[in-house]
User: Fold Putative collagen-binding domain of a collagenase from Pedobacter nyackensis.
Amino acid sequence: MYQRIVLFAFISLALFGCTSNKKPDALKKGLHISENGRYFTEDGKPFFWLGDTGWLLFNKTTREQADQFLEDRRQKGFNVIQAMVLHTVPSVNIYGDSSLVNGDIAKPAVTEGNSFADSTQYDFWDHIDYIVDKAKEKGIYMALVPVWGTNVKNKKVTPAQAKSYAEFLTNRYKDKSNIIWLNGGDIKGSEVKEVWEVIGATLRANDPNHLITFHPRGRTGSSEWFHDAKWLDFNMVQSGHRRYDQDTSAKEQWHYGEDNWKYIEKDYNLKPVKPTIDGEPSYEGIPQGLHDVKQPRWNDADVRRYGYWSVFAGAFGYTYGDNSVMQFYKAGSKGAAYGATKSWQDALNDPGAGQMIHLKNLMLSRVPADQTAASTQADNGYFDRVPDQSVIVGAAGGDNEKYNRLLATRGKDYLFVYTYNGRNIPLKMGVIEGDQVKASWFSPRDGKTTAIGNIDNKGTHDFDPPGEVKDGNDWVLIIDKI
Assistant:
């Protein structure tokens, strides 16, 4: 009998033993979607996307300048850089290297070798390789737009060319671990949709290990056209650069202007569940409305507001942008877009850029101290977070407050409420367990936390943020389980 049991165990191990080595979702290496479909993981651990729009990085920077940019962003906590592979068809980089042969997107201009010392070897694509590899050294993902939407709209890319080009990209970059694909590029998915479908499907078929989304036109989101597409892993919105009174699209379905939390809320409620993010809100230092350089400029308070609004509404991260940095503007040079006057090196230190890390740190602060890649995502202070406006008493959680809007998000043991202008926060108590809870104020401007004290956890409590009520006096109320 014993021999038969041993023999059965041996046969079972031979037949099925390989399945015991299969890694659960929480152990997967690289960037993945969390088990609940809401967030990102990296090597099974929480990953908060803090992005920057370095759109013209490959075109406008030398190797040394690219190093400078990436290192600055690493130090400021950024872990994703959004960049165009082909801004134009063809594109030419700072060294004078063209991307394509005769402007044909199906014919990338590739040379033998990649020695920087030999200009006949070091080509447009080698320069991209260098920057991608340098970003990896610094723990930064490169979110690549294959070809900017204007080129497709202008009939410079056919579906057949798109397929060939996407195959080239995947063959070259599928083994780079720090790649994310942003199909599209500031365009509605309905414009030349067949090209976007071909690119998305080709990327997916040839590169199953990297995440893919679609970067849409201003005041739209990828879910309008591609939510059910098999190649789309997560949604991205571009809430855009207009004020409330400038948003002529506000009456259209799914167009919300400055209220970027509405885009996130809409995506959050879609089925099947997919993560969502605001991949292009108003840039720091860019004119309000974008095109009239005489208009006021969006500032650090504005980019903070977009960040906290969208994340608290359910986004898995946030992408910051700066007018001078995104175009790598050189002071005094011709061809500045959107009234840029400050050099990109100086703009690296614009206030908002240094404040984004506080949002990232806050959202990661409730990850259990003993969190490991092997621990379950189902019982984690990061992955169990949900938006919850029901904790706000009265009209404060409604739809029409504009800058008065309060946004709330919570996990099982904590609750965050954001106010952009320091208005009072009437809170329904008892949502977090305990007879009392611990309350504190968190400053998005400097990341400092100030204790309020222990509060009775019943009824309604009115929290009065420090300072006077004015735009930019923003605070996060934190309620923690004791």
